[in-house]
Amino acid sequence: MYTVISATPSPYARKIRIALQEKGIPFTLQTEVPWNSDTKTPTYNPLEKLPVLIPDDGRPAVYESHYIMEWLEAKHPDTPLMPSDVDDRLFAKQVEVVADGVCDALVEQQRESDKQSKPWKDRQMRKVDGGLKALETWVNAGEGQYLIGNKFGHADIAAGSLLGFMNVRWPDHAWKQDYPKLVKYWEGLEERESFKTTTPKPQTFRDKISRDSEPDSRRALSLGPSPADPDFPNLPASRACDLERPRVNGTISSDGSSFSLLDKQTLRGNRSLHFTAYNMTSKAVIPFLVGMMLLTGVCNTLLTKYQDMQCVRNCDSPDARKHHTFEQPVIQTLQMFVGESGCWLVVLASYLLSRLKKGGRGQTDAAYQPLINQDEREDEITAAPRRGSHEDTLDPTNIVAKPLADPDVEPVDKERLPLQGWKVLMLALPACCDIAGTTLMNVGLLFVAASIYQMTRGALVLFVGLFSVIFLKRHLGFWKWASLFIVVIGVMLVGLAGYIERRNAAVPGDMEGNMTGPLLHLLVRSAEEVTIAVKEHTALETIVGVLLIAGAQIFTASQFVLEESIMEKYSMDPIQVVGWEGVFGFSVTLVGMGILHLAVGQTPAGQGGYFDARQGFYEIFHNRAIAVSSVLIMISIGGFNFFGLSVTRSISATARSTIDTCRTLFIWLVSLGLGWETFKWLQVPGFALLVYGTGLFNDIIRPPTIRWLRNRIGSGQRSTETA
Predict the structure, then answer these.
(1) What Cα–Cα distance (Å) separates residue 293 from each residue in 52, 134, 648?
(2) Which residues are CB-neighbours of 80 under 8 A, at least 6 positions away?
(3) What span, in angstroms and rounded, lies between the C-alpha atoms of 164 and 186?
């Protein structure tokens, strides 16, 4: 007779118990607390994880749930739970990998609140939703009562154990409403005797609050089962409240993972303090953060375009073509870095607030909380290694959020060094890329509408993807490359829309005469027209602007790649990274502006041009509209960075990307409403392709053909069998 050592309601142990019952193998169940001082778990499993299967014939213990399942199948082949067909066997193992992965993600959310952030927790929920969608798809594609025909087996045990675990531990999760066919399938499994006798039930726990000599410090919380708890039949009553585990307050581990047991901690005395298990932003604040991110992002682009439209010389001339507008892209770049440097005000305010709240003893929950890196590797998490999982790192080519890490969570960043001292100077490299990219985009904005400017910036995903392959040696799948192609088509359509509008508005005959003659003559004339376009605002200026903005994305992508390479080795709070890049960018831009002014701006050809800093500042201080918009641009830049990071931390990076897409739409609508541009039908499919391609690249949108092909194959097979 076998002995199964488990910690209920572990879904991993339940798989073993169901398999033993289905095979008709007798066993005894022994419940163990792996962190108890007298635990025997290390005797059987060097990883100190449950479940463990102990044979009765002296053979070594078997551990890790997926291996135990394989072991039982090999040792007891008379009642097989794995199908004989090779493809079906592989599919069953795939189902187990997904089911175990969802369990891993669920329990990873329950680790200590100071070891997680909302974006990190959201990442686990995306895994949960992705796994449930996969199970729903497989259930829909099935041709029988179970996942593989009408034969109950290995795949059903894994899926059923997961769903039963969710039903007990996460009763409020909406999976029953979102996946009705999956629920029906699970309810059918629960009718089997092996499922009925192994139905998980919550453990009964009571907390013990130990007194602390310091009245304001947090009390230690220890957890233990009630002496009458049937899930712990072998635990003496005297040990009921003796299961202290100082490093895992409020959690209990089972099979190497952490389960949340308490929602709040009661402090004995004259007052009580309630806290939630997770440091989450109030739901009432989230709409404000989203709205402010959207508002500041829209204002930033529109205010910059507004500056470009302000007349600074020859404004009294009746001929509008002789008006000179504000054209200072370098100064606008300087404004951006001033706004980014303003992030240090948030850091300072958070520090002062934490000192005030704690009386100088440290940070409180009211202070700014750093953002945990969404790209943290699974083997860097404090929980023990997991079963059936692979290196599930979020693709660093994902441009939803910058790959920045949290230095305050030591277990997560244990292989990364704090980015401090002279090493902070490394952030000057991405700042220089930001200078080049932003300046080129500001020049491009002089020649195109605000909406075309914002849409063309979508080309960023193309260069991020290419650079990640070339420099970071990343691998992009088919759909990643397809999404990049879609983005290119979208950018081309947006640029073409602006070109057609300007060409139709041009003086008749100014272009047609140049479209004849030999090829060499045509190329020479085209080059001349591009030069003239910059000065005379012909139809080609839109193409020039689009090319400048799209080309600027090369530098922005380089900035992301440099940040990725730096943050793979070092960790720093994201808002501090933005602040440092603002400081370095401001310093380099200011020095470069002075050099360019002396070298170019003071020359006869350069006076009044892009590099005439003296003229640029004169125009700012002598034109109220430009001065006010400059201040507002700096505020909007700082606000956009702060609210963007807050949205990423409070909701998710995916939400931030979606909001950024809405920003493009709002810029377009506001520009139309203000009469700054006219509606162009070709811009609609271009924008749609940009949104779809970017969403596909960032895994926000799933390729529809995968499920469609699977359903088509399934229906085709059924049609063949019917015929």
Answers:
(1) 50, 33, 11
(2) 73, 153
(3) 8
Confidence of residue 464 (pLDDT cuts 50, 70, 90): confident
**pTM for this one?**
0.52
Give start and end residues of each alpha helix (H) in 221-328.
Answer: 286-308
> What mean pLDDT is predicted for residues 432-438?
92
List the beta bridge partners of residue 311: 325
The conformational region for residue 517 under phi > 0 = left, psi -120 to 50 = alpha, else beta, is left
Give the CA distances from residue 129 to residues 15, 125, 162, 281, in Å, rounded to whole numbers and listed in that order.
21, 6, 13, 22
Confidence check: pLDDT of 525 > 60 = no
Each domain of the chain, given as residue ranges in start order, spans 2-196, 286-358+395-706
CA 476, CA 140: separation in Å to the nearest integer? 29
Name the helix (H) or strand (E) containing 222.
strand 220-225
CA-to-CA distance for 239 and 222, rounded, in angstroms? 12
Which pLDDT value is given to residue 608?
82
Q: Write the DSSP string, 516-554.
A: -S-HHHHHHHHHHHHHHHHHH--THHHHHHHHHHHHHHH
Rounded Cα distance between 273 and 517, Å, is 84
CA distance 546 to 558: 19
Using omega within 30 degrees of 0 as the cis cutoff, is the peptide bond preceding 385 cis? no
- As a whole number of angstroms, the distance between CA 148 and CA 64 comes to 24
d(CA 101, CA 108): 10
9 Cβ contact partners less than 8 Å away, ≥ 6 residues apart: 165, 168, 169, 200, 201, 202, 203, 254
Task: Please give the structure tokens belonging to residue 298.
Answer: 């829209």
> Could you confirm whether domain 2-196 is CATH 3.40.30.10?
yes
Q: Could you give the CA distance from residue 390 to residue 385 in angstroms, rounded to a whole number?
A: 10
pLDDT of residue 401: 36
What average pLDDT does the chain have?
71
Give the tens place of pLDDT for each residue, 21-44. Answer: 998 888 888 877 766 667 777 878
d(CA 9, CA 16): 12
Give the confidence band of 589 by pLDDT, cuts at 50, 70, 90.
very high
pLDDT of residue 273: 30
How does pLDDT run across 81-138, given as a tens digit for each residue? 998 888 888 998 999 999 888 888 877 766 665 566 667 777 788 888 888 888 888 8
The C-alpha atoms of residue 124 and residue 108 are separated, in whole angstroms, by 7
**For tokens 């039930």, what's the residue?**
201
Nearest to 220 by CA among 228, 229, 211: 211
Residues with Cβ within 8 Å of residue 351, at least 6 apart in sequence: 367
Of the candidates 612, 126, 587, the one whose C-alpha atom is nearest the C-alpha of residue 341 is 587
The helix-helix angle for 65-75 and 11-23 (nearest 10°) equals: 10
* Residue 172 CA: distances (Å) to CA of 167, 169, 176, 178: 8, 9, 9, 12
At 591, list the tokens. 């020095």
Distance of CA 258 to the CA centre of its chain: 23
The DSSP secondary-structure symbol of 600 reads I
| Between 280 and 257, the higher pLDDT residue | 280
* Rounded Cα–Cα distance for residues 331 and 441 (Å): 13
**Pair 639, 296: CB distance under 8 Å:** yes
* CA-based radius of gyration for the chain: 31
